[in-house]
Design a protein that fits this description.
The chain folds into four domains: about 10-140, no CATH class; about 145-180, no CATH class; about 195-335; about 345-455, 3-Layer(aba) Sandwich (Rossmann fold), CATH 3.40.50. It contains 23 helices and seven strands. The chain has helices at about 10, 45-60, 70-80, 95-100, 105-110, 125-140, 145-150, 150-160, 160-170, 175-180, 195-200, 225-230, 235-245, 260-265, 270-290, 300-310, 315-325, 330-340, 360, 370-375, 400-415, 425-435, 445-455, and strands spanning about 220-225, 250-255, 295, 325, 350-355, 380-385, 420-425. The strands form two sheets. Strands 2-1-3-4 form a four-stranded parallel beta sheet, with helices on both faces. It has a three-stranded parallel beta sheet with strand order 6-5-7. The longest helix is centred in the middle third of the chain and has 20 residues, at about 270-290.
Length: about 450
């Protein structure tokens, strides 16, 4: 098919407020603008469509992000199959097809786009998609099934009741339940546990740690367990606590916290994100003020407190204080290692590990800390996979998007095929990669691998 592409000069002419002659990229660090989600104009449909048209025209003239997800191929197909082969040939009613396939991984902003702020074209594709999703949600265009599917807190609480757990796990294979949640018949669903992480951690022996600060780390960690950590992977949270204590780090859990809000953010339900923030932030800010660092075992939850919530509340000082003290587990451990405080007396090799770096960890700009730490373990070979798994939490299970997610994960699964173990800091990504294999496989979280290597 013949493809005609707009030039960057044409693209800049789309917006009369942008200076002519601006080139690609720049030497300045990319910046994010705060999200004006409380302002009525943020949800104005005409204004959103105008900005979508402007940004889509720039993307059409670049096409650098075509391999990242289905949003960009969808956009370019709409343009190339239109009567003009330009954005003016695409109906505004079709813009939603592009928005549907954006799951806010942020990779286009962080790794590909040369026109992000402070470039005068001011392209922030993920947050424009978020704005469009938020407007759709406010207009009542989101199904009840999707609202239920993203209510991870309620689902977890119900499914972790001992009598209900077996029914819930069996029900995950039920056609009726999958239809109720709009889940694809072949999608992999996580397992629920009645012995939640908080129930397990409460029974662990107390550690007699003498915290020692090192760089930005204070040697005292309050773990934000997360919905998924508490209800779906309690063993990983237990492993995290044991690894931290093994390295002389004092550990406690954040009590009474709620969902971090990422599932609702991806849905465009910013009111729910606000409700969760009102419960979580006082708890986290109090812990920080008392000398604790914050850690979460899920990269998406760390990203919420490190980026998305601070951009929603730019003038809230407790939010910004938490942002400065929230860590990814392996980022924290590697900071300790560089200060000579990490135990590297590993007892067991791990063999060949297909390690997938999740998008929401990569965009935090902390570097491949998990790979670096696992590489310290003798007898361990890392197959490093730096490519999106296509899961997103709900994108990989929903009826409408499951097929697209499997297309995205297929090359990732192919690279992991010959490994002894599959691992990712994002447990949902790891499950999705294993789901795409040609053989049965039970993935293992990197923290669990680290505990195994220590022999504790």
């Amino acid at each position: 098919m013949m493809v005609r592409r707009a030039t960057p000069r044409r693209a800049i002419a789309m917006n009369e407020n942008q200076p002519r002659g601006a080139g690609e990229g720049g030497l300045d660090m990319p910046t994010r603008h705060p999200l004006p989600w409380r302002v009525a104009a943020f949800y104005d449909r005409a204004a959103i469509d105008k900005e979508l048209r402007r940004v889509f025209e720039i993307c059409h003239g670049c096409r650098r992000c075509v391999s990242l997800c289905r949003a960009f191929p969808t956009l370019f197909d709409l343009i190339d199959e239109s009567s003009t082969m330009e954005i003016d040939g695409v109906a505004e009613s079709d813009y939603g097809k592009v928005v549907e396939h954006c799951y806010l991984c942020d990779l286009c902003y962080q790794t590909k786009c040369p026109y992000v702020p402070p470039h005068p074209w001011n392209v922030d594709f993920p947050h424009l998609m978020l704005r469009a999703k938020a407007a759709e949600f406010r207009r009542g265009e989101v199904s009840a099934a999707r609202k239920r599917l993203t209510n991870t807190e309620a689902l977890g609480k119900l499914a972790s009741i001992p009598v209900v757990t077996e029914i819930a796990n069996a029900g995950g294979r039920s056609k009726i339940l999958r239809k109720l949640l709009d889940v694809h018949p072949e999608a992999h669903l996580p397992t629920f546990h009645s012995r939640t992480a908080k129930r397990r951690i409460g029974k662990l022996p107390a550690a007699a740690a003498s915290p020692q600060a090192a760089g930005r780390t204070r040697g005292r960690v309050a773990v934000f367990v997360t919905c998924y950590g508490n209800y779906n992977m309690p063993q990983v949270v237990e492993d995290l606590v044991m690894v931290l204590r093994h390295n002389g780090i004092e550990v406690r859990l954040i009590e009474r916290e709620r969902c971090c809000g990422m599932p609702k953010l991806e849905l465009g339900d910013l009111a729910s994100v606000d409700r969760y923030k009102r419960t979580n932030l006082p708890l986290l800010a109090e812990a920080v003020a008392d000398g604790w660092d914050i850690m979460a075992p899920i990269p998406s939850c760390v990203l919420m407190f490190r980026q998305e919530i601070p951009l929603m509340y730019p003038d809230d000082e407790p939010v910004q204080d938490v942002r400065r003290h929230v860590f990814d587990p392996f980022e924290y451990l590697m900071l300790r290692q560089r200060a000579g405080l990490l135990d590297t007396a590993f007892k067991h090799p791990l063999g060949k590990v297909a390690y997938h770096a999740p998008c929401h960890q990569r965009v935090q700009n902390i570097g491949p800390q998990t790979r670096e730490l696992l590489s310290l373990i003798p007898g361990t070979q890392i197959e490093f996979i730096e490519r999106c798994s296509g899961h997103d939490g709900t994108y990989g299970v929903r009826r409408e998007t499951y097929a697209a997610s499997m297309t995205i994960v297929r090359p990732v699964s192919h690279r992991a095929e010959g490994a002894d173990v599959i691992s990712s800091d994002c447990p949902m990504a790891a499950d999705h990669i294993a789901h795409g294999l040609n053989r049965p496989c039970e993935p293992v979280h990197p923290i669990s691998l680290l505990r195994k290597a220590y022999g504790i």
